[in-house]
Amino acid sequence: MEVTPTDVQRTGEGMQIKWSDDRTCLYPYRYLRLQCACASCIEEMTGRKLLNVATVPEDIIVVDFITVGKYALQFLWSDGHETGIYPYRMLLSLAENDEAVECS
Length: 104
Ligand SMILES: [Zn+2]
Fold this sequence. Notes:
- There is one protein chain.
- By secondary structure, the protein is of the alpha+beta class.
- The protein has one domain (5-103): NE0471 N-terminal domain-like, CATH 3.30.2020.30.
- The radius of gyration is 13 Å and the shape is globular.
- It has two helices and seven strands, in the order βββαβββαβ.
- The longest helix has 10 residues, at 88-97.
- It binds zinc ion (ZN).
- Residues 36, 38, 40-41, 81, 83-84 line the site of zinc ion.
């Protein structure tokens, strides 16, 4: 069965996503912003990172978010960036493979 978010909240530290497998994971804002894989952050053909990390404010937050179809979340960031789509499978992979994401 596919794991999907059952609850998504903005918190003081980051996006908190409760998954249907009962894990709750906290994705720090700036960390999540740096994972953006949209065409202006990552070069499509080469996978080269175009985003200049230094330009991303330390105190960046998610201002708003929407669900894209049945497979992804899209965030509106406080720096105005809003083209990034974060598929659930990518968010789950970050939760499993990256210590920056805390799950309980
Ligand atoms: Zn982006």
